[in-house]
Amino acid sequence: MPLVSIVIRSRNEAAIIERTLAAIREQEMKDYEILAVDSSSTDGTYEILQKANIDQLWQIKSEDYVPGRVLNDAVKRCKGRFIVFNNADCVPVNSQWLGNLVKPLIAHPDTIAAYGRQVPRADAYLIVSKDREEAHGTSTAPIALQKKRPKQLFSLSTSAFRHEIIERYSFTSDMMYSEDVEWYSRMRRLGYVIEYAPDAIVEHSHNYDLEHLKKRYYNTGFAQGRIHDKPLDFFWDFLVPFLEDTINDSIYLIKKGQFSKIPHGVTYRYIQKYAFYKGIRDYFSRKADS
Fold first, then answer.
1. Distance between CA atoms of 70 and 22, rounded to whole angstroms?
2. In 10 A of CB 44, how many CB atoms?
3. Is the pLDDT of residue 78 over 60?
4. β-bridge mates for residue 32, sequence order
5. Rounded to whole angstroms, how far apart are CA atoms 65 and 206?
6. 265 and 185 in one domain?
7. CA–CA distance, 16 with 14 (Å, rounded to integer)
8. Which domain CATH number covers 21?
9. DSSP β-ladder status, 193-203 and 91-92
10. pLDDT tens across 88-101, in order?
11. Per-residue pLDDT for 146 more than 60?
């Protein structure tokens, strides 16, 4: 029986999944199995996985993909003491990633889950890089020793769980977005300990075009409304954060010598913030009408 079960979810990741698999194979910790579920890829991803000596591989129809449902099904197939979820486009940056990710679970019996640090890809938009730095920091030092503490935003993208805990407290199976945030919020309310592992590092970022950015953050906002059940105020929860982020973005871009990118940064941030706000607002509008 392996110590760790690594679960990979994929959908049209042929351009990067071989890098991810190669990086996993190079880990110093070797006591693991790999499970992969593919959501009807059309770019050759599934064929790559078929040739990759995966311990368990299966495919689902894209229309049947509901994150929590797929994750819960994968958990039932896992044999490991610990379960690691790592998205197909999350590339470990060194051979210590896996060991560092499960280290909090081994060292601290009260810790039920841990999540790693995500760094932007080399081609990431500067705004995306800034957001990654704010969310996950720029240091592998323990959080208490970092001068500027990151927000430590919980993410399932690269994360580790105790098998018995994730079986007992499964993921919500009717949410298309933010199922990880919902699980995290539920566990924190129950008093469980979840740790950030800043030295478990993967390369992971997305350069969304404006249409996809709008869709992503609208749906995330809609999910957040359900999770936290707290309406937002237009002035304090949209306008003020938008203006603050826009000012900080502009300063960041100026320091990087990228003056010409400021207009795109303003547009990017407006769409991101307003779509998120509108998603939460629409959730409560529908809730009131139901």
1. 24
2. 13
3. yes
4. 4
5. 20
6. no
7. 6
8. 3.90.550.10
9. antiparallel
10. 999 999 999 999 99
11. no
User: Residues of 117-137 as b/e, b for ≥16 C-beta within 10 angstroms?
Assistant: bbbbbeebbbbbbbbbebebb
pTM of the model: 0.93
Q: Which of 203, 235, 270 corresponds to the end of one domain?
A: 203
Q: Give the CA distances from residue 84 to residues 36, 101, 166, in Å, rounded to whole numbers and listed in that order.
A: 12, 8, 11
For every residue of 245-267, DSSP letters joined together read HHHHHHHHHHHTT-GGGHHHHHH
Measured between alpha carbons, how far is 40 from 10 in angstroms, rounded to an integer?
Answer: 9
User: How many helices (H) and strands (E) would you count in the chain?
Assistant: 10, 8
Sign, CA dihedral 136-140-142-144, equals: negative
- Do residues 93 and 124 both lie within one domain? yes
User: Whole-angstrom Cα distance, residue 132 to residue 150?
Assistant: 9
Q: By the 8 A CB rule, do 100 and 212 touch?
A: no
For the range 247-253, what are the long-range contacts, defined as Cβ-Cβ under 8 Å and sequence gap of 24 or more? Answer: 248/130, 249/127, 249/130, 252/126, 252/130, 253/126, 253/127
Residues 4-15: pLDDT tens digits? Answer: 999 999 999 999
φ/ψ region of 157 (left if φ > 0, alpha if ψ in -120 to 50, else beta) reads alpha
Q: What's the total number of domains in the chain?
A: 2
**Across residues 81-87, what is the average pLDDT?**
98
Using the structure block, give the residue that is written with the tokens 């240091």: 139
Residue ending a domain, among 172, 203, 234, is: 203
- Count Cα neighbours of 89 within 13 Å in the Cβ-side half-sphere: 13
Phi/psi of residue 43, nearest 5 degrees: -115, 10
Length of the chain: 290
Q: Which domain holds residue 244?
A: 210-289
Compute the distance between CA of residue 179 and CA of residue 85 in angstroms, rounded to an integer. Answer: 13
Helix (H, G, I), strand (E, B) or coil at 117: strand
Angle value at C-alpha 241, between 145 and 206, nearest 5 degrees: 70
